[in-house]
Amino acid sequence: MVLSKLKTVFLSIAVTILAASLISFPRESFEASIRGLNMWWEIVFPSLLPFFIISEMLIGFGVVKFIGVLLEPLMRPLFKVPGVGGFVWAMGMASGQPAGAKFTSRLRQEGHITKIEAERLVSFTNSSNPLFIFSAVAVGFFNNPKIGLLLAASHYLGNICVGVIMRFYGNETPDVSRDVRKKFKIRAALSVLHQTRIKDNRPIGKLLGDAVNSSIQTLLMIGGFIILFSVINKLLYLLHITAILAKTVELLMSSLSFPDMLSIPFISGLFEITMGSQLISQVQDATLLQKAIITSFILAFSGFSIQAQVASILAQTDIRFKPFFIARILQGIFAALFALILWKPLYVHFNKHEQPSNAWPVFGDGSLANHFYHKMVEIGPLITILSLCVYILILFTRLKKS
Q1: What is the pTM assigned to this prediction?
Q2: Which residue ranges does UniProt annotate as crossing the membrane (predicted)?
């Protein structure tokens, strides 16, 4: 009871300080809000929307169950989750955070996975997509395309390690797919595909409308969190709270022979990974290896901004947030260690060999990923506007019918 009252008092004071800060720093708050809006408007919305809509369609048509039967022999022994977890893992890696939480929640709502399996699955299927790591971080912030391979390898290997560790989390769940694994055939997978589609008897138009409606609602919520934490991060810096928190990690930095100048970017990265990565890349006193280690940690930790987005998505189900938060800390540690271990083989070794002049790097200044990133910035707002118009049209039609 006492802890509950203290929590109430703390939250009330925090919100009051936040409101007073918004009044005290209106221009800075507005600029931070615009920065968060631009990130959502240009990149996040148009890049995540197709994955969200397609995933809803795949679930409705039974394709996810089909994939689940095929991947059961891999996902069950390795991560102790059903084969459908392979779909969430792949989609989460391709589309970026917080897609893994969205797809996991959807499967839980459909009853494809149990509560414990969902908590295991969501812990390792949320990751930054390769486009963000290579283009935004490596090229945009570090101006060094070759560091992207190190960051990506550390990030995804850390994900796998977390998945293997989380297989020991929770009590054993009933192995409902044992019979399916004994009869592992394409025919069995096709049978599951057909039965799932028959059970979901929604017409294609209704299914598509539901997919668009659900996806855009989730993305609107994500946009709100991005803008909010962009403002909070800026206000914490202006109120010197970031500097105060940085003092607490300076001792840790010093014990690891890291310069103190990395402490403030590190704290910023704990709240929002984009700003943190950018600030880390601008520190002059740190070596590139030290920057890569700290960046790997905050990319894996995901930042409180993304964690808040995940928490709001999981709140729609019975999936608990605590295992996800612990997994983020574990992945941050693993990613930082992998960045240190892989520094020589993945960065120093490849840096010794100059690329032929006629080669077109996959992840470089003239790369396909970087070209796609800049194209997304150009056409992203148009995609966002058109998608919102479609959403409003669907919503208006349904309200009119009801």
Answers
A1: 0.80
A2: 48-71, 83-101, 121-142, 149-169, 216-239, 251-273, 293-313, 325-343, 379-399
